[in-house]
Amino acid sequence: DVDAYINPRATTVSSILRHIRHGRVRGVYSIGDAEAEVIEAQVLSTSPISGQRIRDIDFPEGVKVGGVRKGSEVVKPSGSLRIDEGDVIVLFCMMPDVPEVERLLQVSIDFF
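RE: above sequence
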């Protein structure tokens, strides 16, 4: 009885995407026929979203916050939740919105 299978193509694509995305990306998972991505990234001090509440972040229309991990606690995202340095954020992104998400997660020269 097989309950699940591993798609080698999806695994390879996710591995490659993790390395080409900007910022401190921990995981990237392609959805559908590369129509969307789920991006898991650590928020750095130089990221434009660090220190902002979710409702104040100018995410593109096709982006949804799926979850936030603060330390060892996973927190349900709400508009009033503040995103801080070191948090791990999970974002669902439609492909046209990925460049803007990368900009919001990117490392600036000040980080070094």
